[in-house]
């Protein structure tokens, strides 16, 4: 969802910098597809040089899209208060599997998990011999679009009122919205 969200923003004219950890393995065909219109940098958040560079980027950013659960951001030393102190006009879009509060806030989440836990797999598999995911990736793409819309809305609010804005979008929330449709 995060890579799709930022691709949508890039398609709308935003200058997007995609930060990747140089210590993680990459699936290059997926990266090429999701990286359209983005600048790519490698940054190790656990190094002092990486944290320093990220801090400088935050100070001049309009929007930060964070695609991991909140504790990861705080563990790296970037709490909401810290981000706001670095850039009082930042829009933080937090994309996660389950949200920032509740019993699953610290869990990692992916498309497959959200579809399964929210009942989408059971709904589309009824009457079939085995369980199936919805192949169109509604959690990733839907959450990406909702996050991009939220970012643009927050930017509009910031333009009128100023200040630090947060947008929370979740894979589980997106699939639950889709399942509620007739």
What does this molecule look like?
- The chain is an alpha/beta fold and 182 residues long.
- The protein contains nine helices and five strands.
- The protein has a three-stranded parallel sheet with strand order 3-4-5. Strands 1-2 form a two-stranded parallel ribbon.
- Helix 8 (138-161) crosses helix 9 (171-179).
- The protein is globular and about 55 Å long.
- The model has no long low-confidence stretch (mean pLDDT 92).
Query: Mean pLDDT score, rounded?
Result: 92
Identify the strand order in the major beta sheet.
3-4-5
Write the H/E string, N to C. HEHEHEHHEHHHEH
Backbone CA Rg? 17 Å
What is the tally of beta strands? 5
The first-to-last residue Cα distance is 24 Å
Overall form: globular
Task: Estimate the strand proportion.
Answer: 5-15%
Classify the secondary structure makeup into a structural class: alpha/beta
Question: Helix content range of the residues, please?
Answer: 40-55%
pLDDT < 50 stretches: none
Largest sheet properties: 3 strands, parallel
What is the overall number of helices? 9
Task: Explain briefly what this protein structure is.
The protein contains nine helices and five strands; from the N terminus they run H-E-H-E-H-E-H-H-E-H-H-H-E-H.
């Amino acid at each position: 969802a995060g890579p799709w969200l930022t691709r949508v923003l890039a398609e709308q004219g935003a200058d997007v910098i995609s930060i990747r950890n140089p210590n993680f393995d990459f699936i290059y065909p997926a990266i090429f597809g999701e990286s359209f219109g983005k600048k790519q940098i490698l940054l190790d958040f656990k190094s002092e040089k990486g944290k320093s560079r990220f801090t400088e980027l935050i100070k001049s950013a309009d929007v930060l899209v964070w695609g991991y659960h909140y504790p990861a951001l705080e563990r790296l030393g970037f709490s909401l208060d810290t981000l706001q102190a670095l850039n009082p006009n930042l829009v933080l879009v937090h994309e996660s599997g389950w949200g920032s509060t509740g019993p699953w806030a610290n869990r990692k989440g992916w498309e497959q998990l959200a579809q399964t836990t929210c009942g989408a797999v059971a709904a589309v598999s009824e009457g079939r011999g085995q369980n199936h995911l919805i192949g169109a990736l509604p959690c990733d793409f839907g959450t990406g679009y909702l996050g991009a819309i939220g970012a643009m809305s927050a930017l509009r609010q910031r333009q009128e009122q100023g200040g630090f804005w947060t947008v929370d979008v979740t894979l589980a929330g997106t699939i639950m919205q889709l399942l509620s449709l007739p």
